[in-house]
């Protein structure tokens, strides 16, 4: 059981893992997988379950309008077409590592992760805002 929301555990493919990120795209998965594998973590990736969607309300029938001279048998029935089909949920993934002591927040701010070029992983690099990690200025001095 996690102590707080920042340090979650889950079974991914029947392997107990510390969760790195949930509901992320395939590009983000590849970035994290490469970075964590370089830092000697065993990475486990599993497809995220589709979000639970509320059932669509049934369309209300449109009352038939009686026209003079027409009987109920000849009243044309108006059917509503099926509303737009539900869109297919985008494919998202959950990334975890088998080391249960791993916490992504502590790893980034504790400066324990390194890029393949040997630099310390910064918050901007982790969030893929910068293509290179510039660890010369501490995260709290960025404006």
Q: Which word captures the global form?
A: elongated
Strand order of the largest sheet: 1-2-4-3
Q: Largest beta sheet, briefly?
A: 4 strands, antiparallel
Strand fraction band?
15-25%
Strand and helix order: EEHEEHH
**Mean pLDDT, all residues:** 79
Low-confidence stretches: none
- Specify the number of helices: 3
Brief summary:
By secondary structure, the chain is of the alpha+beta class. The protein contains three helices and four strands.
Defining key terms:
3 helices, 17% strand, four-stranded antiparallel β-sheet, 4 strands, alpha+beta, elongated, 143 residues
Outline the fold blueprint.
Elements (H helix, E strand, L loop, with lengths): L8 E4 L2 E10 L1 H13 L4 E5 L45 E5 L6 H6 L13 H4 L17
Antiparallel strand pairs: 1-2, 2-4, 3-4
Written overview of the protein:
- This protein is α+β, with helices and mostly antiparallel strands and 143 residues long.
- 16% of the residues lie in helices and 17% in strands.
- It contains three helices and four strands, in the order ββαββαα.
- The chain has helices spanning 26-38, 104-109, 123-126, and strands at residues 9-12, 15-24, 43-47, 93-97.
- Strands 1-2-4-3 form a four-stranded antiparallel sheet, with helices on one face.
- Strand 1 (9-12) and strand 2 form a beta hairpin.
- The longest helix is centred in the N-terminal third of the chain and has 13 residues, at 26-38.
- It is elongated and about 85 Å long.
- The chain starts with 8 loop residues before the first strand and ends in a 17-residue tail after the last helix.
- The model has no long low-confidence stretch (mean pLDDT 79).
């Amino acid at each position: 059981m996690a102590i707080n929301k920042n340090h979650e555990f889950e079974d991914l493919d029947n392997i107990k893992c510390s969760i790195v990120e949930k509901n992320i795209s395939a590009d983000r998965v590849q970035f994290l997988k490469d970075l964590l594998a370089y830092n000697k973590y065993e990475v486990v990736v599993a497809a995220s379950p589709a979000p639970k969607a509320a059932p669509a309300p049934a369309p209300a029938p449109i009352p038939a309008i009686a026209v003079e001279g027409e009987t109920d048998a000849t009243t044309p029935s108006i059917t509503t077409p099926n509303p737009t089909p539900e869109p297919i949920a985008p494919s998202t993934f959950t990334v975890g590592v088998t080391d249960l002591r791993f916490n992504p927040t502590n790893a980034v701010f504790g400066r324990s992760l390194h890029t393949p070029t040997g630099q310390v992983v910064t918050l901007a690099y982790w969030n893929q805002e910068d293509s290179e990690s510039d660890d010369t200025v501490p995260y709290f001095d960025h404006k």
